[in-house]
Amino acid sequence: MTVTTHDAPTTRALLVTGVIAAVVAAVATTAVAAIGHAAGISLDVSGEPIPLAGFASLTLGFSLIGLALAVGIRRFAARPRTVFVRTTVTLAVLSFVPDVFADAEVATRLLLMVTHAVAASIVIPSIARQLPD
User: Fold this and answer.
1) pLDDT for res 133
2) How many C-beta atoms surround the C-beta of residue 83 within 10 A?
3) Distance (Å, rounded) from C-alpha 103 to C-alpha 132?
4) Do residues 115 and 6 make contact, with C-beta atoms less than 8 angstroms apart?
5) Cα 33 from Cα 112, distance rounded (Å)
6) What is the DSSP string of 48-93?
7) What is the superkingdom listed in this entry's lineage (predicted)?
8) What pLDDT sits at residue 16?
9) Where are the domains of the chain?
10) What Cα–Cα distance (Å) separates residue 33 from each residue in 6, 22, 63, 73, 89?
């Protein structure tokens, strides 16, 4: 199926979907962190605890950066969905690098990676569905 410009979701639909996905991802990552912490996993990195609100705010912030990236890609790329998915999956994988080397317990590092995967699994497909290809 070929998507023509008039059949493609609007920028407004992309923005609304992206913001909703960002909020859902923020709630989800905060919940994952809270569950992990309740199960006994430390949220301390370099001796400082990560507040639960930190998970929400960072997820929101980076998700909105991804949304801005999608808007730009939608405007300039010949195959926006493909470019967006390849770019954001690569960035999501790269987001594990600081976690691997974090000054934290192994369980904490794994929990951080899980939160990144949860956010990516919510935000990337939600936004990608709004991009023509």
Assistant:
1) 86
2) 19
3) 41
4) no
5) 8
6) EEPPHHHHHHHHHHHHHHHHHHHHHHHHH-SSHHHHHHHHHHHHHH
7) Bacteria
8) 97
9) 11-128
10) 42, 16, 17, 31, 22
Write the CB contacts of 52 (distance below 8 Å, at least 6 apart in sequence). 30, 33, 34, 37, 43
pLDDT attached to residue 36? 98
Phi, psi of 75 (to 5 degrees): -75, -35
Q: How far is CA 105 from CA 42, 60, 61, 95, 96, in A?
A: 8, 25, 25, 18, 15
The reply to whether the predicted model has a pTM over 0.70 is yes
Q: The tokens of 19 are what?
A: 């913001």
Are the beta carbons of 80 and 132 closer than 8 angstroms? yes
Measured CA to CA, the distance from residue 17 to residue 60 in angstroms comes to 13
Q: CA-CA distance, 39 to 116, in Å (whole number)?
A: 19
Residue type, position 103, single letter = D
**Beta-strand relationship, 44-45 and 48-49:** antiparallel
Give the Cα separation of 22 and 124 in Å (integer). Answer: 10
pLDDT along the chain (133 residues), means of 10: 58 96 98 98 97 98 97 96 98 97 98 98 98 92
